Amino acid sequence: MLPTSTGGSLHTPSAGPRFRLPSTLNKSSSSSSSAANSTRSFHFHSAGTTPSSSSSSSLDDMKTLLRRLSRYPQMDFEMAGWTLVHVCIAPRRVYRNVYYHKQTKNTWARDDPAVPLLISACLFLAAILWSVLYARYDFLTTLRTIFSMVVIHFFLVGVAISTVLWAASNKFLTHTSHTHATDQHVEWPYAFDVHANAFFPLFLQLYVAQLLLAPVVTRSNWVCLWVGNTLYLSALTQYAYVTYLGYNALPFLIRSELLLFPVAIFFAFYVVSLLGFNIAKTVLGAMFGKVVVVAAGAGTIP
After folding, report:
1. Which residue range is the domain that position 100 belongs to?
2. Is the CB of residue 210 less than 8 Å from the CB of residue 231?
3. pLDDT one-digit tens code per residue, 195-221
4. Contact 228, 281 (CB under 8 A)
5. Which residue stretches does the UniProt record annotate as biased composition, category Low complexity (predicted)?
6. pLDDT under 50 in the chain at which residues?
7. Which of 97, 102, 246, 262 is the most buried (most CB within 10 A)?
8. Is 65 inside any structural domain?
9. Are 21 and 9 within 8 A, CB to CB?
């Protein structure tokens, strides 16, 4: 830094107590310091640390996500397919490029909603198959099943889970003191991306595998009960694990392993359920009543 000439004498900002700055420069320095503090305060609050700004930010993020759903020609379905395959066989690879995406796009979240659309299409087809096999070809029941699986199971439950984890991670899993608050803030669209990634392995187990195993897992014997309950434990555990990987990939989060705590709850409930509570029969009964396994010719499930 070049020295500053004031009244014929040289002064440097780092000269220490040997030099006394003029009062005008002291006022200017004080004003600059106040402005800097004000700016830092503004950035801190703009990062979503207050409840009101967090709520408005999440609503804006939801609107942005819905707006992007209309950009069908710009979606990269090849990359979305790669994501869905690897989230099942190597989920860590899916989150390996999150940091580079932040550097290039200045956002942690995907700017392409192709993954939710592909999952919605898969759920749509699965709902039709479930209705054909279990709803006796009832058109209204088919529409209800499609609405339940696509809108309620995936989107509404996903929005609820994403919002809870988004708020909890920003409040409890970030450092209390940070220099760049905006860079250490979990984006709501990223939270929904994590839900979508975690939902697909669950979809394959509970919406596809259970479709094929329904004649087995709904029978009234302990071995079939064990198969069905283990299927649910596996699906929910994988959902929790992929969710944990998604938040653990963010470099500014701490204690992200707390997100694995639900696995202990799932396992405890699983052990208790082996005493005689058939999860598959209960869930399918709630969705379809006394379903009829047409393809397997198994008759009415009691």
Report:
1. 74-296
2. yes
3. 999 999 999 999 999 999 999 998 989
4. yes
5. 20-38
6. 1-53, 179-180, 292-302
7. 246
8. no
9. no
